[in-house]
């Protein structure tokens, strides 16, 4: 039987003979939808969208807001050993997306004196992105991150969290001071502040305050220095200055929808009937019980129970589900879940750093004697007020009246005669409710302060011995592709597991 050559091989051999066959190869191997030149404005927008979307939704369960009877979906609340890879996601998403994007923007504009404002905003956003990542994992690639394309560094070293924090604070300080009203901004390409330099400065100093207070357990002297610098610079004190990603829409591509609402709808609540929840999610009993016990007006804003197919927001029907369930309960429909008219709105803003948060942090600073313009009790009440007012950003169903707010505060005054620890517990119990749904920030504050005093869920087969996480685990890919630097980080920081404490949590 005569053997025939594969026609693809024949074509290849023919090309070797004819020198003209290489014409058009470059065009054939060029992506027509990509640009070889970075467009700073477009890339900055993408970095904002990716950076906002990259949060570990599983921490909603860890901070006992939500849970699921499904072991896979309930990992955050149950710490199930077999699902530990869910903790990798923030790391694996960050470097190829928002980190690479924002570093590309900075590299493109850093030498242009006319771009001082866009550079400042980019440096602040970079600090935000990296602060979130290091707070989850501890030591991470930082100084060599994003240098694969520019410097052929494909195996970046892991920087210590302490050195990362020092540089983040320096970056925020320098960026905030560099804004120039005579120079250009990103304008509408900036989804957070629309190019408003004054608001970017407030964001920078508020982020500085957040990071400063993070250090109170490990370096209180430096924490005081940076907290005072942030306060003097001017932090967010008005809801109009909240750092939030705007411009999300109901229809269109998923990247243009509120990422938390999109995730929650797709995983559980899209049917809006209380029973067809794909991943078995509901609000956790700890959260709902707290709201009910405190007669918190946010209960009606956040939670619904489907009664005869209709969403009921009345307090008497609200009921949270236990995180210890391993199968769907027969009364599943009777448990509370997120309100379609507020938290699940696809076109609602995504809150990054709020007036409520800064007021609660300032209340702690006042207790420590680092801030004297207002008393801790006034700042605490300001935090509660701001936290309730901000739900109006989610539409009419989120509006809480001034009378409801004042009544709540009347019965939840800060106990100024109590110990500092007792007052901190009150402040950060309110913080837990007040910055919801920012579970990642609550996770960080919980590790630093111990409040709220959540009781871990000791579910069968968990990965932590029935303890709440202290950090997330590095992806397996780091062990395979960046092994030497990974091993150095683990040797320095401690075992790569959920209970190893990061630098500021020692």
Name a few traits of the molecule.
9 strands, 506 residues, mainly alpha, single chain, disordered N terminus, three-stranded antiparallel sheet, two-stranded antiparallel sheet
Written account of the structure:
By secondary structure, this protein is mostly helical. It is built from 21 helices and 9 strands. The protein has helices spanning 7-17, 25-28, 40-53, 59-62, 75-78, 89-109, 116-137, 148-151, 161-177, 197-214, 220-233, 259-269, 285-293, 298-302, 355-367, 376-389, 402-410, 420-434, 439-449, 476-481, 483-493, and strands at 66-68, 140-141, 158-159, 243-245, 281-283, 303-307, 310-312, 337-338, 350-353. A 3-stranded antiparallel sheet has the order 7-6-8. A two-stranded antiparallel sheet has the order 1-5. Strands 2-3 form a two-stranded antiparallel sheet. Helix 15 (355-367) runs antiparallel to helix 16 (376-389). It starts with 6 loop residues before the first helix and ends in a 13-residue tail after the last helix. Residues 1-22 have low confidence and may be disordered.
């Amino acid at each position: 039987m005569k053997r025939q050559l594969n026609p693809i091989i024949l074509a290849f051999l023919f090309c070797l003979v004819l020198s003209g066959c290489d014409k058009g190869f470059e065009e054939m191997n060029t992506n027509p939808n990509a640009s070889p030149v970075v467009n700073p404005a477009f890339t900055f927008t993408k970095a904002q969208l990716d950076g906002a979307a990259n949060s570990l939704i599983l921490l909603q369960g860890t901070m006992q807001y939500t849970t699921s009877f499904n072991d896979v979906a309930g990992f955050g609340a149950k710490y199930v050993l077999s699902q530990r890879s869910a903790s990798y996601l923030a790391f694996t998403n960050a470097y190829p997306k928002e980190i690479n994007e924002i570093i590309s923007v900075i590299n493109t504009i850093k030498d242009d004196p006319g771009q001082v404002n866009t550079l400042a905003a980019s440096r602040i956003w970079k600090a935000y992105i990296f602060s979130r990542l290091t707070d989850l994992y501890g030591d991470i690639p930082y100084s060599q991150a994003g240098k694969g394309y520019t410097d052929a560094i494909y195996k970046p070293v892991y920087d210590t969290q302490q050195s990362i924090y020092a540089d983040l604070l320096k970056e925020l300080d320098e960026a905030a001071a560099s804004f120039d009203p005579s120079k250009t901004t990103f304008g509408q390409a900036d989804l957070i502040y629309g190019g408003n330099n004054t608001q970017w400065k407030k964001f920078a100093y508020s982020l500085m305050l957040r990071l400063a207070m993070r250090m109170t357990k490990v370096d209180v002297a430096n924490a005081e220095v940076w907290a005072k610098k942030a306060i003097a610079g001017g932090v967010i004190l008005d809801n109009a200055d909240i750092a939030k990603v705007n411009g999300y829409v109901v229809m269109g591509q998923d990247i243009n929808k509120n990422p938390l609402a999109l995730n929650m709808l797709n995983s559980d609540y899209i049917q809006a009937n209380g029973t067809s929840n794909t991943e078995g999610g509901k609000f956790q009993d700890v959260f709902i019980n707290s709201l009910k016990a405190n007669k918190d007006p946010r209960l009606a804003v956040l939670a619904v129970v489907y009664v005869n197919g209709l969403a009921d927001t009345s307090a008497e029907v609200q009921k949270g589900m236990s995180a210890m369930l391993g199968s769907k309960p027969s009364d599943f429909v009777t448990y509370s879940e997120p309100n379609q008219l507020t938290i699940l709105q696809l076109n609602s803003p995504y809150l990054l750093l709020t007036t409520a948060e800064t007021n609660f942090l300032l209340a702690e600073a006042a207790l420590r004697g680092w801030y004297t313009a207002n008393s801790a009790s006034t700042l605490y009440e300001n935090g509660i007020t701001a936290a309730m007012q901000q739900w109006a950003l989610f539409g009419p169903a989120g509006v809480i009246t001034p009378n409801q707010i004042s009544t709540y505060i009347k019965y939840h005054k800060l106990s100024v005669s109590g110990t500092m620890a007792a007052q901190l517990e009150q402040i950060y119990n309110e913080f837990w409710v007040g910055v919801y749904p920012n579970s990642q920030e609550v996770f960080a504050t919980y590790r630093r302060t111990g409040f709220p005093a959540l009781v871990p869920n000791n579910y069968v087969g968990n990965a932590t011995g029935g303890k709440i996480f202290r950090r997330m685990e590095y992806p397996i890919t780091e062990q395979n592709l960046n092994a030497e630097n990974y091993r150095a980080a683990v040797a320095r920081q401690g075992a790569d597991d959920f209970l190893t404490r990061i630098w500021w949590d020692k």
